[in-house]
Amino acid sequence: MRHKKGVKKLGLPRGHRHALLANLLKALFVKERIRTTEARGKELKRMAERLITTAQRGDLSSVRNVGRVIGDKEVIRKLFKEIAPRFKDQKSGYTSLVHISPRPGDNAPCVLIELVEKGGKKGS
């Protein structure tokens, strides 16, 4: 049973899974909207919300913690300077998952994950 297990394995070894999610997080923070499979999108949403909440603190410790996950200085800078201040009045709900048509080829369920603001405005 998987009661209280924190992470979806996505059928990948730990190193591949961390690399995949780090790359998806980078793409999400740079483009602010990406398309992926439903399982990856749900795990990505969980991680992105945690990183944005951590980035809202803005101290050196939070920069280092986010850097351990992302690793790209430009993306970290954008997260701390642009994205986190945009959500300063929110405590959660920074991302939105929208179900879209299945992927051609293997018919995998796909989602569009995007950064949104409290009033329903999409990220700029």
TrEMBL record:
Transmembrane segments: none annotated. Keywords: Ribonucleoprotein, Ribosomal protein. GO terms for cellular component: cytosolic large ribosomal subunit. It holds the Pfam family Ribosomal_L17. It comes from the Bacteria. GO terms for molecular function: structural constituent of ribosome. GO terms for biological process: translation. Belongs to the bacterial ribosomal protein bL17 family. NCBIfam families: L17. This is 50S ribosomal protein L17. It comes from candidate division NPL-UPA2 bacterium Unc8.
